[in-house]
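Postdoc handover notes: sequence design on the structure in folder B. Input tokens:
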């Protein structure tokens, strides 16, 4: 089981998005779907209620990477500050993914040849989720990519070192810096690849005048087996950050995380609605 999984926030179209993604990526599947039900919210939060049977959450895998998709409403949206970096083994595979994800979206970097890759492109799909597709013969995997912009620009290396100090089986595997007279501040991270708990991530700095930064639109869920583990990650990641409801937090760099007990999936199983109702009512009033 993955230790960390990205969670994407949607506005009532999570299932449609996941169906698109699982149709596009080989070896993908929907693991489970949870729904809103009558009594999901406590009485003092009933204004948030949605019709019984509305999709709440989809747990799915694209290849070996686990994801979550939450129908949370219009409050938050994904931004390119967290994109998904897809290494494709063949041009045909890359082109097929591009042709599936691009319609109805917008292109950030045109699909074509670049100094760093024979074939690469960056787009936001129709749901606002950001994807970087790069030709990487012999590889096919997906890595969450963190782009540090605005006030966070220049902190990518600091963030990577901090995250690697928290998780076992972690480390920076590759790091390229901006050089003088290149399109970025000299010494900042141009492109880096690192691992957390054996899982692949990408990071970069950007000093361009982007109109976006990290938001709850994409958060990183950390699955914990014990209360001690929950306390550890919560305490470390909230240092100089911000506690939020329902196990969410923002770290000192602005990245959103969720600290999730492994048993949560079982406790919130909607086949036992009374138990799920008690769990949800308690959780919605908590932070950690």
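Designed sequence:
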């Amino acid at each position: 089981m993955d230790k960390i999984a990205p969670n994407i926030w949607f506005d009532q179209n999570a299932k449609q998005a996941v169906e698109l993604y699982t149709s596009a990526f080989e070896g993908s599947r929907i693991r489970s779907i949870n729904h809103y039900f009558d009594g999901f919210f406590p009485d003092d939060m009933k204004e948030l209620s949605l019709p019984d049977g509305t999709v709440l959450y989809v747990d799915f895998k694209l290849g070996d990477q686990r994801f979550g998709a939450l129908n949370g409403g219009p409050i938050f949206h994904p931004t390119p500050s967290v994109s998904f970096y897809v290494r494709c083994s063949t041009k045909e595979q890359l082109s097929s993914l591009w042709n599936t994800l691009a319609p109805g979206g917008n292109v950030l970097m045109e699909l074509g040849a670049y100094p760093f890759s024979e074939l690469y492109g960056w787009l936001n799909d129709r749901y606002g989720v950001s994807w970087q597709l790069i030709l990487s013969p012999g590889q096919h995997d997906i890595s969450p990519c963190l782009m540090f912009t605005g006030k966070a620009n220049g902190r990518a290396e600091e963030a990577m070192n901090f995250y690697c100090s928290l998780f076992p089986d972690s480390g920076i595997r590759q790091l390229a810096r901006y050089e003088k007279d290149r399109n970025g501040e000299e010494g900042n991270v141009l492109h880096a690849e690192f691992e957390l708990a054996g899982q692949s991530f990408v990071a970069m700095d950007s000093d361009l005048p982007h109109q976006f930064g990290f938001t709850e639109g994409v958060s990183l869920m950390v699955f914990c087996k014990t209360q001690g583990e929950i306390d550890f990650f919560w305490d470390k990641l909230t240092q100089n950050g911000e506690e939020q409801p329902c196990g969410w937090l923002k770290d000192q760099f602005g990245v959103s995380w969720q600290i999730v007990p492994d048993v949560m999936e079982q406790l919130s199983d909607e086949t036992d609605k009374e138990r799920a109702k008690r769990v949800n009512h308690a959780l919605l009033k908590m932070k950690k």
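Context for whoever picks this up: The mean pLDDT is 92. Don't rerun without checking with the PI first.
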